[in-house]
């Protein structure tokens, strides 16, 4: 039986072990036994806390989004103007913290499971709706009409996905270069942003 008060510690150990296992061995080889061994725990504890591997993967996905939201909030709290808020949100999408190899490897592996996992698909749709809503609101706050703001938000989401994927897969683009490309797009598409 798990020790009282150990649940948050054990859950975090298992989430971190899962991310490490996915990065080093791939999602298909990230078995409950390998994850448990890496965490220094038993696979029975994984079942106790997460029910099964799908439950563990859902917890990892939620942890990735929680950490990402934390990065966004950390930047937004410092922003004072609508343009600074938009830049803070965009910078958080391509920040060094969220583009660490263990984070990107895990995100890509779990994202590949979205079509076959209704739970992961629901989480992904919720995140995308939230990002689009925030972009739309911030773009309107800087003065774009709703239709134009919607168009730019859609373009930004596609551009962010492409840049993130290229950085995550180490295809010649660093996080800094990705942010520079994004800024260049913004200065052309929305000239009021400088």
Could you explain how this protein is built, in words?
With 194 residues, this protein is mainly α. The chain folds into two domains: 1-51, Arc Repressor Mutant, subunit A (Orthogonal Bundle); 68-189, Tetracycline Repressor, domain 2. It contains nine helices and no strands. Helix 1 crosses helix 2 (32-39). The longest helix is centred in the first third of the chain and has 24 residues, at 53-76. The chain is elongated, with a radius of gyration of 19 Å. The model has no long low-confidence stretch (mean pLDDT 91).
Provide a short characterization of the protein structure.
The protein folds into two domains: 1-51, Orthogonal Bundle (Arc Repressor Mutant, subunit A); 68-189, Orthogonal Bundle (Tetracycline Repressor, domain 2), CATH 1.10.357. The radius of gyration is 19 Å and the shape is elongated.
Model regions low in confidence, pLDDT < 50 over at least 5 residues = none
Query: Approximately how much beta-strand content do the residues carry?
Result: under 5%
Radius of gyration from CA coordinates = 19 Å
Span between termini: 58 Å
Quickly give the structural class.
mainly alpha
The level 1 CATH classification of the largest domain is: Mainly Alpha
Largest sheet: none
Number of helices: 9
**What is the CATH homologous superfamily assignment of the largest domain?**
Tetracycline Repressor, domain 2
The domain tally reads 2
- Kindly identify the CATH topology of the largest domain: Tetracycline Repressor, domain 2
* pLDDT averaged residue by residue: 91
Helix/strand order: HHHHHHHHH
CATH architecture annotation name of the largest domain: Orthogonal Bundle
Helix content: over 70%
Count the beta strands.
0
The coarse silhouette is elongated
């Amino acid at each position: 039986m798990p020790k009282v008060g150990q649940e948050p510690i054990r859950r975090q150990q298992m989430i971190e072990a899962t991310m490490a296992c996915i990065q080093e061995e791939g999602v298909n080889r990230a078995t409950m036994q390998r994850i448990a061994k890496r965490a220094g725990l038993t696979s029975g504890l994984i079942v106790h806390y997460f029910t099964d591997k799908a439950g563990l993967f859902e917890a990892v996905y939620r942890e990735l989004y929680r950490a990402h939201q934390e990065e966004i909030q950390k930047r937004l709290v410092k922003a004072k103007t609508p343009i600074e808020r938009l830049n803070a949100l965009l910078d958080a999408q391509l920040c060094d913290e969220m583009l660490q190899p263990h984070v990107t490897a895990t995100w890509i592996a779990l994202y590949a499971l979205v079509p076959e996992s209704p739970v992961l698909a629901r989480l992904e749709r919720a995140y995308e709706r939230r990002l689009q809503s925030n972009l739309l609101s911030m773009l309107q706050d800087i003065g774009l009409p709703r239709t134009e703001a919607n168009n730019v938000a859609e373009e930004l989401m596609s551009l962010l996905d492409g840049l993130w994927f290229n950085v995550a897969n180490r295809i010649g683009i660093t996080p800094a270069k990705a942010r520079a490309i994004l800024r260049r797009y913004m200065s052309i598409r929305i000239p009021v942003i400088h």
